[in-house]
Structure formats: structure tokens, C-alpha cells
Amino acid sequence: xxxxxxxxxxxxxxxxxxxxxxxxxxxxxxxxxxxxxxxxxxxxxxxxxxxxxxxxxxxxxxxxxxxxxxxxxxxxxxxxxxxxxxxxxxxxxxxxxxxxxxxxxxxxxxxxxxxxxxxxxxxxxxxxxxxxxxxxxxxxxxxxxxxxxxxxxxxxxxxxxxxxxxxxxxxxxxxxxxxxxxxxxxxxxxxxxxxxxxxxxxxxxxxxxxxxxxxxxxxxxxxxxxxxxxxxxxxx
Amino acid sequence: xxxxxxxxxxxxxxxxxxxxxxxxxxxxxxxxxxxxxxxxxxxxxxxxxxxxxxxxxxxxxxxxxxxxxxxxxxxxxxxxxxxxxxxxxxxxxxxxxxxxxxxxxxxxxxxxxxxxxxxxxxxxxxxxxxxxxxxxxxxxxxxxxxxxxxxxxxxxxxxxxxxxxxxxxxxxxxxxxxxxxxxxxxxxxxxxxxxxxxxxxxxxxxxxxxxxxxxxxxxxxxxxxxxxxxxxxxxx
DNA sequence: CTGCGATACCTGTCTAGTTGTATATATTCG
DNA sequence: CGAATATATACAACTAGACAGGTATCGCAG
Lengths: 236, 236
What we know:
The structure is a homodimer.
Chain A: H1 6-19, H2 32-39, H3 43-55, E1 59-61, E2 67-69, E3 84-87, E4 96-106, H4 109-115, E5 122-132, E6 135-145, H5 152-158, H6 162-168, E7 175-185, H7 188-194, E8 201-210, E9 216-225, E10 229-233
Parallel strand pairs in A: 3-10
Antiparallel strand pairs in A: 1-2, 4-5, 5-6, 6-9, 7-8, 8-9
Chain A binds a DNA duplex through residues 1-3, 5-7, 31-33, 41-45, 47-48, 61-67.
């Protein structure tokens, strides 16, 4: 009977609710079952509407958790994505960052080689997520030589930026010695944390930073969401 | 969204950590709660991964105490891929290259802006494929300002390298003014020419090269097969 | 120093709720 | 008929929270 699919009107209603501020960025929508009851349709019809909204970047669904609102449609036109032009030299200094794990453990062979410490030496590993405008931009994993930087663990816990933490440990300045860049598909957990599809293209940078004397102080790996980030190399 | 269960990638990550020596036999893994935070998932999902590892005899969990590592995995699949370390500065000078198309046409708006020529001005477009060891490594598309480089088309046809062709047109030397790097999934034709899966991660670099006077002489886009290439940035 | 209790933390288990996926079926329209 | 739309049902995967049972650690009394 309806020549326009039912789900389009549900999408319009929900998008309108978000636009009017009934559901705001970060809020959880009611469950699919609840929405289905509200609109008097089957859950799959609601899912069709939510899928369209997710495609447009309006909401993001997590299995088990609910559906979260990402943006107000007025702020971010549908289909338009946030573009982030980042200077590679400035990597590590982003608007917001979440630290998910901070632990001390043994260095792997590769990490030990990069940091020029003995294999199995203590290293502080800091993992987390960088965000901009509420959207996840990158996952990072930084490894610091614990013996070379006493107190780095506490410093990382207390201050927000890596630079500042290193300053606390006596490293006034540091530079990148090398950076390797590769493109890799996202695995399941990476995809979930970056809110992209599994298998989406990630930009992985692996770097070693050294202090003015040339001694390695950090070994970092960052996975950028390829669809949201472009790295820009400054002309030396 | 995840066609592979989340916990499998967690199992892979932890098994990899053990294989690389971050956690050694006898060590205690971080608590389930800490791991859940690190991977951004629920504790139960971590437990599922740990259960699989315990099943394999890799770790042992004791109630109240933590999870201890028993031994290194005897067999851990490390993606054995051809690795190509390339200096970004040298991009565009590869062992072998196939020119698939060479034509003169009008510049698009973006190309005109990058090359600092009038929109619609004549440009020479060179497209093709770079190979190493018989394997396709990258697709390239270079755009040259035809009026600024008289005879560039013939030069490109006759000599193998871009550098040499530019020398013929009076550009003794050139440097990169800017490089932008992004990760993008491969479309069907790119996938076919690079011999990778459709949707595989590609590394796209967009650059502008200038002569010693700072005048743009080339605007290039290169798509590297992410699984075969690692770009290495040299320390300036 | 030893022994012991308090406490914080960790794993094991359970219940409930939510999204993702697969299959089957009815209805409508061209 | 065939395609698109919507419904119905069932199960798998993940999240959330709570609680029980076990362990390690630390301070403190003896």
C-alpha cells in the first residue's frame, strides 16, 4: 500500500527527534524493541531506519550496548564527514585522548630493539584512543623505557599529554627519529573502538622518538581511521 | 557488524603479546577488568578470549589470583608478507614501471590549483603501475603542466624515469613541497591491477613537486598496496 | 619477627537486556 | 511470476550489573 517505504518515516521521525534535541550527542536511543513498540512496527523495520541513520553517520550501534547518537544533523550535514588534517610532526597532540590501559611489563624483542634496551627490560605501555569532536580518530600504543625514565608511569597518569609527561622525566625536548607508515585493515576490536567497519582501511604509523642526545625515549604505534584522517607531511 | 567474533581478535592480540615476549611464562596477565578496558569491551568478552587461551593450554586462571602465562605459543601465525621499505622521498622512482596511459588533456580544478596553472590549462597525464620483483606495488597518476614543460609528453614516453624526463625539459632538480597520506579501500579496478582483494587497504599519497624556484612541476597520486609496502620517512 | 585479621582485588557465575544475523512467510505492485 | 516491503521467530554475540568465593597484601598486635 505505501509507495514510500515505512522505514523512511521512522528515520525522519528519529532524525527529527535528534535535530530537536530530544536525543543529544552521546545519548542512547531507546532499544530497537522499544522503538518498534513506539512506532507500532516490527523490529526489523526499525533496524532498517537505524541502518540508514548509521550510514549517514548520525548514530552508531554497538551490539549489546545500545544505539548512540553521534551528531546533530544540523551541525553535520548528512554524508559529510569530519576531516582531520594533521601534521605528522605534531602527532601525539590531539584535542582529546582516553587512556584505556597503563601498565608496566617486559619489552618484546621488537620493542627492545626499537628502544635500544635489553630484551625483557621493563617498559611502560600506554594504550588508548584519540578523539576529535567526540569522534574517535585513532588508537595509540606508546612504549616507554621504564628504567630510562623513572616515574614515567605516574607522569602519564597525571598529565594529559605525552610531551608533558616526558618533560617531568627530564626530557625537555624530543624529536622523531623515524616513522613508518602502512595501510592495514581493521580487526574486530579496532573497528569497534574506532567505530568503523571491520576490515576498513587504517593508517598505521610506527615511530621512534629520541631525546636531544639521540637516546630513544618512546616507541609509538598509532592506527588512524583512514576515512577520517589525512596525514600531511610538512616540508622540511 | 563483526563477522568474526570480537573475542577472537582479543585472543590473537594477547597470544601475540605472549609470543613476542611481553608476557613471559610465569608472568601474570593484567586483570580481566584491565584487559576489558584496554580493548574497550565487556569483561565477559575478555573472559571468552581467555577461556580459549586456557583451552589451548597457554594460560591458567586461578580464582582470586590472576591469570598466569604457562608458556609461549608453539605456533603463532605471523603474517609473512613481502615487506618493502621505501623512502618516501624517493617515491616515484621504482625498479620497474608500466605506463598504461599517457595523454594530454585539460586540467581539472583541483589539478590546476595544485599545479598553479589556469583551470582548463593543458596538462600531461601519465598513469600506470609500479612493480618490484614482478609484483605490482603501486598505481600512479602523475600530472604535469604541459605549457611549463614543453616536450614532457615525448620525454615521458622515451625515458623510463620521471626524473630523467624532467631533466630533458630543463628541470635539473625538484623537491616535494607537500605530501598527504591517507588509507583507502581498494575499488574493483584498483584491486585487479594491484592483485589484492577488493576492499583491501591502500596507502594513497598525494604530492606536489616543485623545481628549485618553487614552481610546481608535477602533481602525483600514488596508491600503494598496503599489504606489500611500508613507507619510511627519513629523518631530515 | 611471626601470626592474624581486615581489606582490596580477582576470578567464577548468574540473570537480564540489547544488537546482529539467519530463515521463513505474507503482502503488494509492476 | 518476480521483486520489494514488512512481519514473525529463533538464536548468537555482546553488554551490564550483581554477587559469591577465593587470593594476595598490608598493617598491626603480640
